[in-house]
Prior knowledge:
- Chain A: InterPro entries: ATP-dep_DNA_ligase, ATP_dep_DNA_lig_pp_1105_fam, DNA_ligase_ATP-dep_C, DNA_ligase_ATP-dep_cent, DNA_ligase_ATP-dep_CS, DNA_ligase_ATP-dep_N, DNA_ligase_N_sf, NA-bd_OB-fold.
- Chain A: This is DNA ligase (ATP).
- By secondary structure, chain A is α+β, with helices and mostly antiparallel strands.
- Chain A is 36% helix and 24% strand.
- In chain A, the strands form 4 sheets. In chain A, strands 3, 4, 5, 6, 7, 8 and 9 form a 7-stranded mixed sheet that branches. In chain A, strands 12, 13, 14, 15, 16, 17 and 20 form a 7-stranded antiparallel sheet that branches.
- In chain A, a hairpin with a 2-residue loop joins strand 5 (271-281) and strand 6 (284-285).
- Chain A is globular.
- The N and C termini of chain A lie far apart (57 Å).
- The mean pLDDT of chain A is 90.
- In chain B, 25% of the residues lie in helices and 25% in strands.
- By secondary structure, chain B is α/β, with parallel strands linked by helices.
- The interface between A and B is medium-sized, with 28 and 22 residues.
Amino acid sequence: xxxxxxxxxxxxxxxxxxxxxxxxxxxxxxxxxxxxxxxxxxxxxxxxxxxxxxxxxxxxxxxxxxxxxxxxxxxxxxxxxxxxxxxxxxxxxxxxxxxxxxxxxxxxxxxxxxxxxxxxxxxxxxxxxxxxxxxxxxxxxxxxxxxxxxxxxxxxxxxxxxxxxxxxxxxxxxxxxxxxxxxxxxxxxxxxxxxxxxxxxxxxxxxxxxxxxxxxxxxxxxxxxxxxxxxxxxxxxxxxxxxxxxxxxxxxxxxxxxxxxxxxxxxxxxxxxxxxxxxxxxxxxxxxxxxxxxxxxxxxxxxxxxxxxxxxxxxxxxxxxxxxxxxxxxxxxxxxxxxxxxxxxxxxxxxxxxxxxxxxxxxxxxxxxxxxxxxxxxxxxxxxxxxxxxxxxxxxxxxxxxxxxxxxxxxxxxxxxxxxxxxxxxxxxxxxxxxxxxxxxxxxxxxxxxxxxxxxxxxxxxxxxxxxxxxxxxxxxxxxxxxxxxxxxxxxxxxxxxxxxxxxxxxxxxxxxxxxxxxxxxxxxxxxxx
Amino acid sequence: xxxxxxxxxxxxxxxxxxxxxxxxxxxxxxxxxxxxxxxxxxxxxxxxxxxxxxxxxxxxxxxxxxxxxxxxxxxxxxxxxxxxxxxxxxxxxxxxxxxxxxxxxxxxxxxxxxxxxxxxxxxxxxxxxxxxxxxxxxxxxxxxxxxxxxxxxxxxxxxxxxxxxxxxxxxxxxxxxxxxxxxxxxxxxxxxxxxxxxxxxxxxxxxxxxxxxxxxxxxxxxxxxxxxxxxxxxxxxxxxxxxxxxxxxxxxxxxxxxxxxxxxxxxxxxxxxxxxxxxxxxxxxxxxxxxxxxxxxxxxxxxxxxxxxxxxxxxxxxxxxxxxxxxxxxxxxxxxxxxxxxxxxxx
Lengths: 530, 347
């Protein structure tokens, strides 16, 4: 595992993409062949789940360190990361050993099925022979939350370089949840995809947000402009008489969408469509809130299917008659898609995404500003002659979301974060005025700079009114502008509303607590919805 | 019953030689304060860090090597009484002496003895020698007032010699890659600790003004640390493959950006934690500390033979509970206003 630990240290020690890529290439060049697939799996977030109870891990480590459990818990609270806490308190080993990554991961999986006594013996055995970063990496794998500072894009780039293949090819082959115990480097990267892996989707093409003015994009007629929908991006595959629906998160979600179940009887083999899975009624999309009543449910009752009927709004055609047509221009793919949707008896389960016809960019701007009224969250801009690319690429596709809603809230509770934010109060609860009273309406974690976080952390420590466990209530003094994508009635917060994607837009140092928004303002936002 | 109660109160009120009040740690018998945080008549100063040596005291008593620091930072000259290590003096029957604390140059544990009972206040200290400050001296006592900056079992620092080697390796590697090396450390203490162990054969050493000022003050009592002060007159283009020692407050400033390209490392015990390291946004963290780690704190508590331990700034609740549970020593908390200079953002 030393080579893998060295790789982890190098990735951890740099923020430069090229150095990370090089570190992975260097690793692949020296690692044991059997370890490589495990390393790739772990680096791309495909890792085994935690085999032992964390309470047991804490207990065993405290025993070995000769400290009472309460002292371990206090230490853990400061460190904010269990694997790191374990590593820091365990006594230094005098008999360091090396294990292969394959062995460690095999052990993690095996330990799930053995008795607690055996778990203890095996895990403490490893603890006695590991130190430093090796021990940390081991504990990270053992606690099931190993994360490395690389995106899958970086891993793909490194593999492409190492195997001397196209990035798009590598990305395609790494898609979905593959099993490092059954795959080899050869089966992963050299096998015949069409025959051996007909269930695999194509890598999704993702758009960057438009930052400048759309007029800079040139003539509107060169662009396909579609309403941006707030559902689940998905890829629908019919091959070898099987149907697969993949989410953008590369989860296979076929079972979740019974509406699509009969499509393999209707569409011919070798059809792959990219679109948005979204609840739809009376000719328009329903709120994302409706979708959420379905996702995560094991059993879909007739009632739920009726209240939240799903369709796929189709954006693109990636494969037709078994032929990969991603390099053809968008207008050709779209024309073919349109013809297919009109030809086959799809019963409005598959709907063509609307190509909005605007006279000029100004009209498009106006639509975007009021997108919510049109059941959309903005516009998608796609160059008419663009190929279907792999991953997030700039230039041909842009998302152009409507401005988020925003509201000024008062900071009333704070809690410390974890990981990089451990021991810093960075998780906040905000409130709005309900008459003379402040009522909490959302939590938010992101949006501030590290400097602001440190300043606010200091302020919180000096302005704590009360402590409940890890939570501190603070003087209602600081005001923040919070942005969010959606708002709905909810019983979860005292204010009676729930926000979608709340984040901190800016610290309003110019405002006093009394200047913050009210509960009425929030309810007004809900009323304005179509 | 009434008599018994009164006796008890008498004990707690008059037997304690040192107590904490709003101004600081107070010795009523001698009418002196130890590292007070509000202006008082007589202040015994353990060392020159700003949370222990504050402005506004009528009289300062400190170890002689702390005097130049006091002059630099507070400017007081007439009202300072310098004492040597292990050279006791008496105030109203209280025998007072200063003993090396190993924290920084001049840092002292302050020992007070009255009617056969001995109290020791550590100020800040470390047992491991840094090769610069006078090494920690074990002082036996009945009452031991200890800091607890790193008073949790997660803080076990590596051997400092390993860290010095790592720092030089880091520097060497950066030179090879064409980078300058910025080492962040508190200007008094950590900076000298670093400077004394840099391998000068690797390249040039430059200093931030705050570090240079401290070095100049220490030069007046015979210390000689390497490094050239960076001034606006310096030709910045000539600073190549060099080490620049600067206080933590210099990170992310226009001053530092002029040293580009550089790799930056923070030298502090807090760097033991990954989260702290990443939050700092530095390329590297060296857990080089001028405080006791968990092992050293435990060693000190046991070796002093104290029958009562008072825990100040740091993880005082946890460490105090641990001491009483683990060693059966009476332990309490002294709530002080000392903080940890290593985490201070500005000086």
